[in-house]
Each structure stands twice: as C-alpha cells, then as structure tokens.
Q: What sequence folds into this?
C-alpha cells in the first residue's frame, strides 16, 4: 500500500478521536507509518457485527418479556457474552448457567446466586429480576 | 510516581509493547523488527474456537509468542507472573512501579473504558504498558492508542482479571536481563525461517493450506449455512483481518517493512525484492476485504459472489506459497 492510499474514511474511530497506525511505502518505496482515520470495509464489518448483537439483545428481551427465558440470557447478550464467557465470570458450569435461563429455575435462585449475576452484569438485583429497569 | 517512559503508537499491541519496552531500555528496535524476529506472521483457521458466534481465524501467532520468541532469539530474559488474587497482582505491579520498572500487562478488551464502545469485545489478549501511578490512577501506554491514557485501580483490576478464552489472570511481564549489546542478524534469520516453516506447514488449517481451506469453505457457506450465517462468517474474516479487537491488521505490510529493514541489516538485496512482493500480496488481502465487505453489505445470496472472493483467496494462497518458498531460499 502506498502512503497516499492509506484510507482516511470516516469510521467509528472518528467519534473517539483516535487514529490507528498503518504501515505503507513512500515515494521512494521505503516503509513508513501513516495514521488512518478508518476504512469503509472495516466499518461495514463492524457495523454488521454490532447490528447482529443488537438483534440478539432484542430477541432475548422479547423472550424474557414472554417468559420464555430468564433475564440472565438478556443480560448475557447485552454484554456481548456467550455461555462460556458468562459461565467463567460467575464461576459455574455452562450447563448450570443454561439451566438458569429457565424462568422457573431463575425464580428459585438464592440471593447469593442472584448477587453473583448482578455483580457480573453491574446491575442491582431488582434490575436483574426486572429488565425493564435496565437503562440502556 | 511516574517512570520516564516514551510512548510510541504501533499497529499491533504485542509488537508495540515489546518495541516500547526495548526502547525504554535503550535499544532502538522497531515494531516490524519485533514482529519479524518473533515470527508473528501466521494464518490459522480454528473451527473449534468460536469467537462472537463465528469460527476464529487468526492472522498472527498465539498471544505471547512474539515476545517469547523475540526474547529467546536476541538473548533477553523475561519474568512473567500470573496471579490468583487480584490484591497480589496489584501489589506486585505497585512494587515494580516503585522500582522504576515499567511492566507489560495482558488484559481483556471488554472493560477498557478508553476504547470506543464498538470496539469492546470479549477479547483477552490485548497488551499494554503501565508506567506509573498517580493516586488511584495508573498511567497507561496502550500501543494502539495515539496518546497515553489512565485507568483507575478498579478499572485496571477488571481488565487484568477478565474471564473467558485466554483469561489473563493478572498476567504481567518485564525484562529482567538484557545483554549489553544485542545482535539482530542471527535472530532475523531464525525468525524468517520459522515463519516460512509455519506458512508452508503440511497441516490443513495452518498457513497457505489454511488459506486454501477457508477459500473452499467460503464456496460452501451460502448453501450449507444459509445467507445470514455465511455473511456473518465472512464479516468475521474481515474483522479478524483488519480490526483492532484482534490487535490490528496490516500484518502483511508489517512483515514487508520487516523484510526491508532486514535486507539492510543482513546486506541481502533479495529481501528488498521480496519485501516489494509481500507489499503486493498485502494489497491483494485488502482487495479481498473490500470485495467481501461489498458482498455482505448488499446481502445478496448469490453464490457467484462467494465463489468470486473464494477465487481471490485461492490466488492469494498460491502467491504466498511461491513467496515463502522464495524467502526460504533467500536466507540460505
């Protein structure tokens, strides 16, 4: 890539006001570094990933409201986690976390377990039990 | 307390930390040089590791390997520490800062508050340097950032004890022995040989063979996985190639920059020619990313679109195969 070809597209980095470093060749074919403000293909890939996550969150939210799953799944998706990551954060086996997705099981969870989840998701127990209290 | 530490921005976190720590200890070693000697370049398709609901593809070696190999090859000794207790991790960090010793840390990205939200994923192999402490704020030199930044002790603890794949467990590292003089020639040759071996490995998911495998898979994805999943997987390939979350892209260019620098040090003009060739291959990777992004932006499920970019990958794989065979010969 030539120095002048280093993309300066508008990207999500712009809002954060930081540029990333790229290696490119100058007029004499010598390697140098240039800051880039972003590249459209990357922005598209990232936007797609974010959109996908938002869809998952929305889907989980609806299922919590329909009492098909517990708020734990909603918060898990909200924090971009999957079962394995959440399980390691709360220090439980994956199958146990999965079981807690069941609203019936969730409603019987001890204060201690609830607190563990609440801490990981950085919410209060009330917010954990009632996702409509979760400000986003 | 603040250590007199100079922050240099880099394209990739691990190279950057090593290069910055080396410069701090009085050795001008560039980021590409660290990457090349550490044999950072790789391609590996890891179907059994799902990242963000898609199979992982990596364009570089496992986290920590670059530093490890670099240190071995230039004769540096590094001390690495991991902790069970966050309080111990904090104590050891503070002790080092008191002794004027900047340390490298492996951290999780999700809770790095200075990153834009969109970039915060559960990726646990990011690297940064802590070079001081001001009351409750740790002074941070994150190599992918333009400027230095800070994290409170609570924020730092969160990222040091992130969970999931590659959980850092408070991992911190710093050189404890650096020879008076370091010679790069032998280290460079070792680094190049290793990269050639990796890229030409007779293993289906690694190196050139790995690229060919992904190319074959891309052809199958739309029929086998459906349009939506195929697009998601494709997006993941581009993101892993280019995004900050995995440490920043452009590895082919960094490697080309390394070859150019190595050519002067080894007095080997062939490497300069090969550097040019690698730059062109880097451009092909970018064209691939561009076309792939167009494909999933339009969301068309046309199989020719997928076949088209699979063809591009196959061409890249063939070119890299030729390239690494030539490179292997060039340093004999």
A:
């Amino acid at each position: 890539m030539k120095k002048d070809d280093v993309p300066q597209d508008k990207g999500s980095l712009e809002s954060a006001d930081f540029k990333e470093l790229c290696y490119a060749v100058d007029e004499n074919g010598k390697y140098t570094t240039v800051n880039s403000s972003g590249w459209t293909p990357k922005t598209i890939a990232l936007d797609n990933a974010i959109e996908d996550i938002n869809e998952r969150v929305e889907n989980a939210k609806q299922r919590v409201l329909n009492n098909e799953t517990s708020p734990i799944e909603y918060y898990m998706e909200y924090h971009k986690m999957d079962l394995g990551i959440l399980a390691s954060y709360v220090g439980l086996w994956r199958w146990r976390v999965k079981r807690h997705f069941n609203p019936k099981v969730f409603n019987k969870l001890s204060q201690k377990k609830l607190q563990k989840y609440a801490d990981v998701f950085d919410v209060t127990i009330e917010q954990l039990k009632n996702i409509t209290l979760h400000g986003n | 307390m603040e250590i007199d530490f100079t922050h240099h921005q880099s394209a990739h976190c691990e190279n950057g930390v090593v290069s910055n720590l080396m410069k701090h200890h009085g050795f001008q070693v560039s980021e590409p040089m660290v990457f090349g000697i550490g044999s950072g370049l790789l391609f590996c398709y890891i179907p059994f590791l799902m990242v963000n609901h898609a199979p992982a593809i990596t364009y570089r070696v496992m986290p920590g390997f670059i530093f490890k190999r670099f240190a071995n090859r230039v004769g540096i000794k590094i001390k690495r520490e991991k902790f069970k207790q966050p309080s111990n991790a904090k104590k050891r960090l503070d002790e080092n800062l008191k002794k004027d010793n900047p340390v490298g840390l492996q951290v999780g990205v999700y809770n790095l508050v200075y990153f834009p939200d969109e970039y915060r994923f559960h990726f646990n192999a990011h690297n940064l340097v802590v070079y001081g402490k001001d009351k409750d704020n740790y002074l941070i030199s994150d190599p992918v950032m333009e400027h230095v930044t800070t994290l409170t002790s609570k924020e730092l603890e969160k990222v040091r004890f992130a969970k999931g794949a590659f959980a850092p467990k408070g991992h911190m590292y710093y050189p404890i022995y650096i020879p008076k003089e370091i010679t790069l020639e032998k280290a460079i040759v070792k680094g190049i040989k290793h990269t050639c071996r990796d890229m030409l490995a007779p293993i289906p998911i690694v190196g050139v063979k790995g690229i060919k495998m992904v190319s074959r898979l891309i052809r199958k994805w739309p029929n086998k996985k459906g349009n939506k999943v195929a697009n998601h997987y494709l997006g993941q390939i581009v993101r892993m190639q280019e995004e900050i979350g995995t440490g920043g892209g452009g590895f082919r260019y960094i490697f080309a920059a390394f070859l150019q620098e190595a050519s002067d040090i080894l007095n080997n003009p062939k490497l300069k020619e090969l550097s040019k060739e690698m730059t062109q291959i880097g451009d092909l990777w970018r064209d691939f990313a561009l076309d792939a992004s167009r494909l999933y932006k339009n969301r068309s499920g046309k199989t020719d679109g997928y076949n088209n970019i699979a063809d591009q990958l196959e061409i890249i794989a063939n070119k890299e195969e030729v390239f690494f065979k030539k490179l292997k010969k060039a340093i004999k």
